[in-house]
Amino acid sequence: MLMPKESRDLRKTMKRLGIFLLIVFLFDVFICFLFYRYTELNGVLIGFIIICITAVLYLLFLLICARIDKKKKERLEKSGKKDPFTKE
């Protein structure tokens, strides 16, 4: 059974991941269309390029999320306020 804090973190992570996947999927479709339509590259090579682009974007996404969470935690500690949802 998940604790309330773990459940909240899981929902936040799933929400962020869902938004990321939607945006990246649309971007990948656009890039794939451009490659397929205007270049003479093989389909497998286009797929490999799309996978590489997606991997780099996911790593950037993870870095941005980590920084956002770190800044939020620092700001919460600096203000001296306690998170109302934690029981610590």
What does the average pLDDT come to? 87
User: How many β strands by DSSP?
Assistant: 0
Helix content range: over 70%
> Shape, please?
elongated
Please report which band the strand proportion falls in: under 5%, 5-15%, 15-25%, 25-35%, 35-45% or over 45%.
under 5%
Order of helices and strands: HH
Tell me the distance between the termini.
Answer: 19 Å
Radius of gyration based on Cα positions: 19 Å
Q: Pick out the low-confidence regions.
A: none
Derived structural class:
mainly alpha
Q: Give the helix tally.
A: 2
Largest sheet: none
How would you describe this protein?
The protein has helices spanning 4-38, 43-79. It starts with a helix and ends in a 9-residue tail after the last helix. It is mainly α. It is elongated. Helix 1 runs antiparallel to helix 2 (43-79).
Fold blueprint:
Layout: H1 4-38, H2 43-79
Helix pairs in contact: 1-2
Provide key terms for this protein.
single chain, 88 residues, mainly alpha, 2 helices, 82% helix, 0% strand, elongated
Short structural summary:
With 88 residues, the protein is mainly α.
